[in-house]
C-alpha cells in the first residue's frame, strides 16, 4: 500500500484555524494535529471523519494514499 498523505494544513490555512483550534474542535491535542500534518501519525477513522466534518469535505478529499503506483488518484 501507499503512504498516507493529507491536506489538513492546507485546509486549516483556508479556514484560518490554528492547530490548537482544530484540535479543540475534534477533541485532540495540538501535537496530534502537528503529527498528522507532518505525516508522522495516521489518525483513526473517527478522527478523520471529525476533521472532514470541520472542513465540510469528504474524507477522501483530505486523506489519500500515494506511492504504491496502483491506486494513486492524486
UniProtKB/TrEMBL annotation:
Residues 8-62 form the HTH cro/C1-type domain. SMART domains: HTH_XRE. GO terms for molecular function: DNA binding. Keywords: DNA-binding. This is Putative transcriptional regulator. Signal peptide: none annotated. It holds the Pfam family HTH_3. InterPro entries: Cro/C1-type_HTH (IPR001387), Lambda_DNA-bd_dom_sf (IPR010982). CDD domains: HTH_XRE (cd00093).
